[in-house]
Write a structure and sequence with these properties.
The radius of gyration is 20 Å and the shape is globular. Helix 5 packs across helix 6. The chain is α/β, with parallel strands linked by helices. Helix 5 links the parallel strand 3 and strand 4. Helix content is 42%, strand content 14%. The protein has a single domain, classed as TIM Barrel, CATH 3.20.20. The protein binds 3-methyl-2-oxobutanoic acid and sodium ion (NA). It catalyses: (6R)-5,10-methylene-5,6,7,8-tetrahydrofolate + 3-methyl-2-oxobutanoate + H2O = 2-dehydropantoate + (6S)-5,6,7,8-tetrahydrofolate. Its cofactor is Mg(2+). Its EC number is 2.1.2.11. Pathway: Cofactor biosynthesis; (R)-pantothenate biosynthesis; (R)-pantoate from 3-methyl-2-oxobutanoate: step 1/2.
Length: 265
């Protein structure tokens, strides 16, 4: 195998090879994903929802992100690991942002960080990049700002917001970010952004005109069956499969069928 690096991702875009990315928060899942050949694993702050059951991504802490990220890093051999800077760990000032990014790199062994926003976090991004830490941007629907937006609906449908998004993407490229996530924006705008910049644009709910795709692993496995936005393709119905397995086990325990003669010492 050949290790995926921030440079190989940019080369993939140049060569027209699409980039595959999914989330991971723990060792066991990360090991399966890496073995399957995923290019990028995102230790997303969606762990706040998926792992901890919070309604938003805001409550997860830097320490908790480092715990998830270090578990993922121990499992992988090939893919690139990107770790989200959680809400509250970078918005105060650029020095705090750099300190948080350094903690992630030192304490988890992750390869890069991602943070949400454009021009408002420009100085923080510069500082982190200056320290030699690769940065992935995140524009469009930025869940850490949910209380500003009020809803999780499609972003940048209006001219003004679309223009700002394009400007922010150009700025992220200029600063030296290695890639940008575009979340829940019109496919046409996402394609225009992907054509305007030379670093990869990874979409989620951003159509097929971008350079790669990311989904939350638990969503694409069908484990979170209450959640079905249009952009989500389900590759398994794990909720049904797992419920069946759990019910079989419960039944076998109750009936005394498990363990059998062969399943004991
Ligand atoms: O935290 C996350 O899972 C993300 C992706 C949806 C891009 O940021
Ligand atoms: Na995130």
């Amino acid at each position: 195998y050949k290790k995926v690096t921030v440079k190989s991702l940019v080369d993939m875009k140049k060569n027209g090879e699409k980039i595959s990315m999914l989330t991971a928060y723990d060792f066991t899942m990360a090991k399966i994903l890496d073995g399957a050949g995923i290019d990028v694993l995102l230790v997303g702050d969606s762990a706040s929802n998926v792992m901890a059951g919070h309604e938003t991504t805001l409550p997860i802490t830097l320490d908790q992100m480092i715990y998830h990220a270090s578990s993922v890093v121990r499992a992988i051999t090939r893919c690139l690991v990107v770790v989200d800077l959680p809400f509250g760990s970078y918005q105060s000032d650029p020095k705090e942002a750099l300190r948080s990014a350094i903690r992630i790199m030192k304490e988890s062994g992750g390869h890069s960080i991602k943070l949400e926003g454009g021009k408002e976090i420009k100085e923080s991004i510069k500082r982190i990049l200056n320290a030699g830490i690769p940065v992935m941007g995140h524009l469009g629907l930025t869940p850490q700002s949910i209380y500003k937006f009020g809803t999780y609906t499609v972003r940048a449908k209006e001219e003004e917001e679309a223009e700002q998004l394009m400007e922010d993407a150009l700025m992220l490229e200029r600063l030296g970010c290695f890639a940008v996530v575009l979340e829940k924006v019109p496919a046409k705008l996402a394609q225009e952004v992907a054509e305007a910049i030379s670093i990869p644009v990874i979409g989620i709910g951003a159509g097929n005109g971008v350079d790669g795709q990311v989904l939350v692993t638990h969503d694409m496995l069908g484990m979170t069956h209450e959640f079905h936005p249009r952009f989500l393709r389900r590759y398994l119905d794990m909720h049904t499969e797992m419920t069946g397995a759990f019910q079989s086990y419960i039944g076998d325990v109750k009936s005394g069928d498990f363990p059998s003669d062969k399943e004991q010492y």
